[in-house]
Amino acid sequence: MKKIVVFFTALTFMGCAELQKVVNQLPQGGILTQEQIGRGLRQALDNGIQHQVTKLTSKDGFYKNDLVKILLPKELQAVDKGLRSIGLANLADEGLKAINRTAEDAVKTATPIFVNAVKEITFSDAKNILLGANNAATSYLEGKTTTALYSKFNPVIKKSFSKVGADKIWSNLISKYNSIPLVKKVNPDLTDYVTTEALEGVFTMIAVEEKGIREKVGLRDTALLRQVFALQDNK
């Protein structure tokens, strides 16, 4: 940790001769420019988007991934339990699949927003990310994109409820549930809930990739990633 702090302090306050002495103590033994460090962090985020987020857009990308699978909100769990108790487990499963399908559909709109945010990383951002926690890059991206992603996801999810048939499935599901004697009737609007859960799933998967790159040298699949993240290995 001390070596890394000295490195970044040197970039700002030391001359070339003194800087070279400090840099020679670092794992790679060569000077990384501010631009290279920024590019390395951008590559790490690009990997998260390419390797993990794109998986979420495929069929069952959410539904069969236990890390991000969208379950029913607490107030609707009685619906699921009630349907299963009267032999309608298949209908309950279809309801869960339907809300996960809408998330898979919405995530397809995320990439351009992520690309723009990644391009905006400054050296100050990169320094804080590199010296930060295992999810520091993910947290940066989350802070930069959540508002824009919600605005994109929400109408897509609303439209997707119709596109993937979730509106009909849920209408049927809730009608069946409401017909059970003595149950409290429900009529939920799931759009906001699924939007929020989809966003959480996206950042969960980016964090998985980031943690891997930080902890496993083998996942640093470019020379620049290896050089940049070597700087944080001794922190």
Determine the N-to-C terminus distance: 3 Å
Largest sheet: none
Total E-strand runs: 0
What series of H and E elements makes up the topology?
Answer: HHHHHHHHHHH
Q: What sort of overall outline do the alpha carbons produce when their principal axes are compared?
A: elongated
Helix content: 55-70%
> What class, by secondary structure content?
mainly alpha
Radius of gyration: 23 Å
What's the tally of helices?
Answer: 11
Q: What does it look like?
A:
With about 240 residues, the chain is an all-alpha fold. It contains eleven helices and no strands. The protein has helices at about 1-15, 15-25, 35-55, 75-85, 90-105, 110-120, 125-130, 135-165, 165-180, 190-215, 225-230. Helix 3 (about 35-55) packs antiparallel against helix 6 (about 110-120), helix 3 packs across helix 11 and helix 5 packs across helix 10.
Condensed summary:
This protein has 235 residues and is an all-alpha fold. It contains eleven helices and no strands.
List keywords for this structure.
about 240 residues; elongated
Layout of helices and strands:
Layout (H helix, E strand, L loop, with lengths): L1 H12 L2 H8 L10 H23 L20 H9 L3 H19 L3 H9 L3 H8 L5 H28 L2 H13 L12 H25 L7 H8 L5
